[in-house]
Automatic annotation (TrEMBL):
Top-level taxon of origin: Eukaryota
Aspartate/glutamate/uridylate kinase domain span: 32-290
Catalyzed reaction equations: L-glutamate + ATP = L-glutamyl 5-phosphate + ADP; L-glutamate 5-semialdehyde + phosphate + NADP(+) = L-glutamyl 5-phosphate + NADPH + H(+)
Protein name (record): Delta-1-pyrroline-5-carboxylate synthase
Species: Scopus umbretta
UniProt pathway: Amino-acid biosynthesis; L-proline biosynthesis; L-glutamate 5-semialdehyde from L-glutamate: step 1/2; Amino-acid biosynthesis; L-proline biosynthesis; L-glutamate 5-semialdehyde from L-glutamate: step 2/2
Molecular-function GO term, any one: ATP binding
Localization of this protein: Mitochondrion matrix
Length: 758
């Protein structure tokens, strides 16, 4: 027997075998039977008199949504005392105003005092109104609710416990939502308490214990405890060093300092943790979260059930490695140490990684073979993604060459002075390059991305979190191991972290205190999802690679088919592959046009006709569904334009500002195209496939940015740096530069230090 709050708990409840709680948040979506416990601070208004109707309506909406999905929902609620207090205060004021108006006149109404209200009377007056409110709200969703009032004594009597269990099961069978509350109208008087001003509060600590007891008794899959704090912190919330605990494990109580309880009720966080751990032991998963925050309360329950990172999740399964929050802190500390190394030391790490890619080639390819076999057996990946997943000896050799280029070009990246100004005599200002901080790079089906991005992060002194796709798990593991082996030569192994936990991408995008920049590398849908999910963290990348090639009327016959073939067929899954071919109208029905079509047919490229192109043909290919399509395969759209001006307009309307090409021998036309197309990369007589960090001589790239920020196009080392200002003075103060001060501003530009060009 365990006793909390004067309620005895039998460790193994009747008719329940010891269940198994969910090990990970991602499994919560499978929860069938759910108890939602609403604390007093959630249900009660800020003035502690009456109910927070808007918040309550939102909770009912979420519970109804889950109930209508086929789940079995139960609510353990507080609020009767607060609701009753509101009603009784109204009655007392009305009664006093009538009496005083008769005997003393209106002048004394303002001096009326509200007597201290007895909590049981408040509960008696509030219970019926609270239930009526729940019934009215649930009726809006065609759901029936039923009230069950219990007391501490009900759990001492085995027959009453059986009856309660049977009643709840019958209600759930009939698709009714049970609403359970302690019967505060008949419980013994509590100790005097000033939580609710003017009310001796019935201890709602019982509702924490009650919710845990019912959850285990009813073999519930999930208990959601809503309070007025985000969850469990490692120190009292509001203190400077307080950090929200994402996952709490049994035995972690010693590492937690409990603060004061909520503004109403007696159910402090310590009581909630005890109740949660007891429920966890009984096989019920538990999440403690904030039900009062206006930005999240409207979807907090559904977010928890969907497995999103909300509040504190209680789990019995402790992961072998660090949490993603710990990895973020390790990357931050490791990145700062990395930035403090000498440029030659950072270059040495990258050279070592390049050597490891070739020395450990067999092990890398073996791991990659496992990924390919698993992907093919499961049939989850389309052919373009399988191609991206595949590694080869030539790919590894190219990677090693690119990494050596990065090492050679990184000598003068961090700490480079880009501006010097003499503000005044003996007051000099410098602007120097510094790392951005911690980067989160999310990539799909591209294990070769891992060493490339790692090398760029190392060269620029940034900490790095990597989140790869599950389909490349074996490849990513060995490549990350080799990266850490290279980092170890200068003791900065922690600077690059591979996130292996079951963190959802959306949850990673909320870690704004740990991550400074997110770089997605993958499908357009992935990039859009990340841009939508990122809260307060800038995202650098492109959502689509809709690249155009415009064949001008003055194009060279010898160049056209070579450039188009390379742009479309060399690697059709790449983001810099040709997707739309624009043809000058005068080239239709010419030998050059026939050569283009014949070449595409030989290469088995499926052609989609744009609206204008289709209008010229009697029997046309399938008309394109959208001119804004990234095929990522041996498919492309052909459209007709009247000239370079219309080509530019088409690109601006349907393109993605990635890479666009003109093929022409007319220099004036080419320059017009180069100057007027507003894309990250604009080429003349060259394949779209040159839009690549390695081919640009950057060694590699973290991605191609189409944003209007400092880094655009293929992003190498320079794009991963920001700046800071260094001011060196000698007892300078601003007041010396006032109208009657002794000093004058000079603002002289000073020469920059000579760069290392080796």
């Amino acid at each position: 027997i365990r006793c909390w709050s004067n309620i005895p708990f039998i460790t193994m409840p009747l008719s329940r075998a010891h269940g198994k709680s969910f090990a990970h948040r991602s499994e919560l979506k499978h929860a069938k039977r759910i108890v939602v416990k609403l604390g007093s601070a959630v249900v009660t208004r800020g003035d502690e008199c009456g109910l927070a109707l808007g918040r309550l309506a939102s909770i009912v909406e979420q519970v109804s949504m889950l109930q209508n999905q086929g789940r079995e929902m139960m609510i353990v609620t507080s609020g009767a005392v607060a609701f009753g207090k509101q009603r009784l205060r109204h009655e007392i004021l009305l009664s006093q105003s009538v009496r005083q108006a008769l005997h003393s006149g209106q002048s004394q109404l303002k001096d009326m005092a509200i007597p201290v209200l007895e909590a049981r009377a408040c509960a008696a007056a509030g219970q019926s109104g609270l239930m009526a409110l729940y019934e009215a709200m649930f009726t809006q969703y065609s759901i029936c609710a039923a009230q069950i009032l219990v007391t501490n004594l009900d759990f001492h009597d085995e027959q009453k416990r059986r009856n309660l269990n049977g009643t709840l099961h019958e209600l759930l069978r009939m698709n009714i939502v049970p609403i359970i509350n302690t019967n505060d109208a008949v419980v013994p008087p509590p100790e005097p308490n000033s939580d609710l001003q003017g009310v001796n509060v019935i201890s709602v600590k019982d509702n924490d214990s009650l919710a845990a007891r019912l959850a285990v008794e009813m073999k519930t899959d999930l208990l959601i405890v809503l309070s007025d704090v985000e969850g469990l912190f490692d120190s009292p919330p509001g203190s400077d060093d307080a950090k929200l605990i994402d996952i709490f494990y049994p035995g972690d109580q010693q590492s937690v300092t409990f603060g004061t309880k909520s503004r109403v009720g007696m159910g402090g966080m310590e009581a909630k943790v005890k109740a949660a751990l007891w429920a966890l032991q009984g096989g019920t998963s538990v999440v403690i979260a904030n039900g009062t925050h206006p930005k999240i309360s409207g979807h907090v329950i559904t977010d928890i059930v969907e497995g999103k990172k909300v509040g504190t999740f209680f789990s019995e399964v402790k992961p072998a490695g660090p949490t993603v929050e710990q990895q973020g802190e390790m990357a931050r500390a490791g990145g700062r140490t990395l930035a403090a190394l000498q440029p030659e030391q950072r270059a040495e790490i990258i050279y070592r990684l390049a050597d490891l890619l070739t020395d450990q080639r067999e092990e890398i390819l073996l791991a990659n073979k496992k990924d390919l076999e698993e992907a093919e057996n499961k049939g989850r990946l389309a052919l373009p993604l399988l191609k991206r997943l595949s590694l080869s000896t030539s790919k590894l050799n190219s990677l090693a060459i690119g990494l050596r280029q990065i090492a050679a070009s990184s000598q003068d990246s961090v700490g480079r002075v880009i501006r010097r100004t003499r503000i005044a005599k003996d007051l000099d200002l410098e602007q120097v390059t510094v790392p951005i901080g911690v980067l989160l790079v999310i990539f799909e089906s591209r294990p070769d991305c891992l060493p490339q991005v790692s090398a760029l992060a190392i060269a620029s002194g940034n900490g790095l979190l990597l989140k790869g796709g599950k389909e490349a798990g074996h490849s990513n593991q060995i490549l990350h191991h080799l990266t850490q082996e290279a980092l170890s030569i200068h003791g900065v192994k922690d600077a690059v972290q591979l996130v292996n936990t079951r963190e959802e991408v959306e949850d990673l995008c909320r870690l704004d205190k740990l991550i400074d920049l997110i770089i997605p590398r993958g499908s357009s849908q992935l990039v859009r999802n990340i841009q939508k999910a990122a809260k307060g963290i800038p995202v650098m990348g492109h959502s689509e690679g809709i690249c155009h090639v415009y064949v001008d009327m003055d194009a060279s016959v010898e160049k056209v088919t070579r450039i188009i073939r390379d742009s479309k067929c060399e690697y059709p899954a790449a983001c810099n592959a040709l997707e739309t071919l624009l043809i000058h109208r005068d080239l239709l029905r010419t030998p050059l046009f026939d050569q283009i079509i014949d070449m595409l047919r030989v290469e088995q490229v499926k052609i989609h006709a744009g609206p204008k192109f289709a209008s010229y043909l009697t029997f046309s290919p399938s008309e394109v569904k959208s001119l804004r399509t990234e095929y990522g395969d041996l498919e492309c759209c052909i459209e007709v334009v009247d000239g370079v001006q219309e080509a530019v307009e088409h690109i601006h309307k349907y393109g993605s500002s990635h890479t666009d090409v003109i093929i022409t021998e007319n220099e004036k036309t080419a320059e017009f195209f180069l100057q007027h197309v507003d894309s990250a990369c604009v080429f003349w007589n060259a394949s779209t496939r040159f839009s690549d960090g390695y081919r640009f001589g950057l060694g590699a790239e973290v991605g191609i940015s189409t944003s209007r920020i400092h880094a655009r196009g293929p992003v190498g080392i320079e794009g991963l740096l920001t700046t800071k200002w260094l001011l060196r003075g000698d007892n300078h103060v601003v007041s010396d530069f006032s109208e009657h001060g002794s000093m004058k501003y000079l603002h002289e530009s000073l020469p920059l230090p000579q760069r290392n060009t080796n």
